[in-house]
Amino acid sequence: MRCLITAGPTREHLDPVRFLSNGSSGKMGYAIADAAASLGWTVELVSGPVSLRAPAGVRLHSVVSAQEMFEACEPLFPNCDVFIAVAAVADFRPRVSAGQKVKKSEQSLVLELEPTVDILKTLAARKRPDQVVVGFAAETQDVENYARRKLTEKNLDWIVANDVSRPELGMNADDNAVAILSRSGNRVVFGPAPKPEVARFILHTIALPLPV
Ligand code: CTP
Q1: Residue 131: how many CB atoms within 10 A of its CB?
Q2: What is the pLDDT of residues 117-147, one digit of tens each?
């Protein structure tokens, strides 16, 4: 099994020292990479900036921005059997990134943002029938409905829904609780449990043949 995983946040720089980002720690993505390597899978881990060590046996590709994450994933995608997008990719980036540090002034500053590439949606649109694509849905309300919408809109086989409004289970937590939804309408729930346990459960679930 060859597996491609994205993890962590992305950073979208306004200037060399400032960026837009989010509080993703990378723990969930790294736990999945670790669990996959333990199963003997080949793992390509494309990661935004995090303070975690790459799990043993995993090939790490370190990136910063959404665009870099996409460019790292694109050539790896055709060679994977499973693509699991765990990264909390920034949806917007500053339209202009200054080459030098922006100096302060007395005036208010208006930032113009433009959308970043949706890595998961772009690659899932190229999915072959023999590939399995899994997304995550980080939601703060109406979690499973929004997740199911993403499952369809992004052409996924599975989506892992998690409620990031709960600090003890959210983006930077050690534990998680998930609902795993399949294209064919299956639903399994797991947790709260430590992220390594959740990771093993997710892999076990998605490795099963998809029911028709
Ligand atoms: N994703 C991605 N590229 C993006 C945005 C999201 O690959 N530019 C992936 C994430 O890795 C995750 C899934 O899409 O697997 C859903 O991400 P999420 O942040 O929950 O949703 P968005 O698509 O960004 O939509 P919204 O922010 O409106 O909920």
Answers
A1: 18
A2: 999 999 999 999 999 999 999 899 999 999 9
Choose one of 89, 136, 143, 145 to mutate for the ligand 1 pocket test, by most ligand atoms within 8 angstroms of C-beta.
89
Nearest partner of 8 among 83, 66, 93, judged by Cα: 66
What does pTM read for this prediction? 0.96
- CB-based pocket (< 6 A), ligand 1: 6, 66, 85, 87, 89, 91, 116, 118-120, 135-138, 150
Q: Is the dihedral of CA 154, 73, 187, 138 positive or negative?
A: negative
Query: Is residue 176 annotated as a catalytic residue, yes or no?
Result: no
In a domain, 107, yes or no: no
Q: What CATH number has the domain bearing residue 171?
A: 3.40.50.10300
